[in-house]
What does this fold into?
Amino acid sequence: MPTKQRVFQTLARRAPKDAVFATNTSALSITEIAAASGAPERVVGMHFFNPVPRMALVEVIRGLETSDATVQATIAVARRMGKEPVEINEFPGFAVSRINAMIGNEAFYMLMEGVGSARDIDKALKLGLNHPMGPFELGDLVGWDVRLKVLEYLHETLGEKFRPCPLLVKYVKAGRLGRKSGRGVYDYPG
It folds into this structure.
């Protein structure tokens, strides 16, 4: 958060007065980033999803003081990118990250409980829910450290239903972060 706040303060001082400032985040407060900028009406969230080339959705997140003009300009940009924008009011986890955090966390509980292998759980969600990636494939791509931070934030702000699975915490402590570390739920040699 402090890094984003510094960047947006600098942008607001140096950019043209009609510039729109968008940030991609899974959970950080758009309102907090906007307040630090000094131009909160021009700050908006533009949350893309992994894998970005395959996922059409972009959540356009309105902070407390984001103007209608900023939201409409961001929606237009998303459409020009070939994406499908959905306007979301800021709340911890927004819409998709909030639900996806629960799916990934529950998948870890299922793995811990022996409900199925990681590959079978991924396959079941891909085929049963028409997801392009299973929860373990997606977590390995995003990084389990990132997913854990989102869950911890949601647990802190929204309560017990977001308590991170102990097995997920163990993976992060072991450095099994996913593709970026070479090992997560799956191995990535080389």
Summary: The chain is about 50% helix and 10% strand. The CA atoms of residues 27 and 93 lie 5 Å apart. Helices lie at 2-14, 30-37, 68-80, 96-113, 118-129, 135-142, 144-158, 166-173.
